[in-house]
Request: fold
Amino acid sequence: MNRASHTAAIAVTLFLPLVMASSTVVVAADEPPDTSIDGLQLKKSKNLDLVCVKPGATLAAYTKVWIDPVEVAFSKDWKPPREFNEDDREKIRTGLAEEFQKVFTKELQEKGSYQIVSSAGPDVLRVTAGIVDLYITAPDVSQKTAGNVKSYVISAGSMTLVSELRDSETGAILARVADRKSGRQSGPVQWATSGSNAAAARSAMGQWARVLREALDGAKSP
Reply:
């Protein structure tokens, strides 16, 4: 599935109540509707593939952010090496979820002065996110096999963020977003390691965190 059709497919999922990453349903569609079944309106964005917002909603009142644990789901098309087992998959899921928390916490606290909390409040924005369609082009298996195993790739892979922003006290949905990030698609091949894969993932998550921080900042601007 190419980027355009993939994005349209995610659009349909966004117009249902947020589906957790472990059970995301992907349905093909030519064009997403302008309004979701729960009243969110599709908005154009320069930074994200899809943005749906509640009419009249604002982030101006929020000075704290509650980030739910992130669920991670692999792409059905991903074919891991034979050496990989369920423990390895779980290690990747756990590591990516922990990195998500670190990246968002650093961006929001250090660059935006937003406090990260784990309970509801009148000034708390709740973020529920899932990383879906995770596709790792060359997972590092050098520590699991004998010999010097090297994987040369052009792209580090791809993953899609599906996220929902809510008022923490009422649970009211303020926005849903979806965005797909892919690794470098051109240039010389590189040796993929666990370190290079992690760096690519951090870069993608850093962009998502910056979009959220700038949205919060912008809501408070005159």
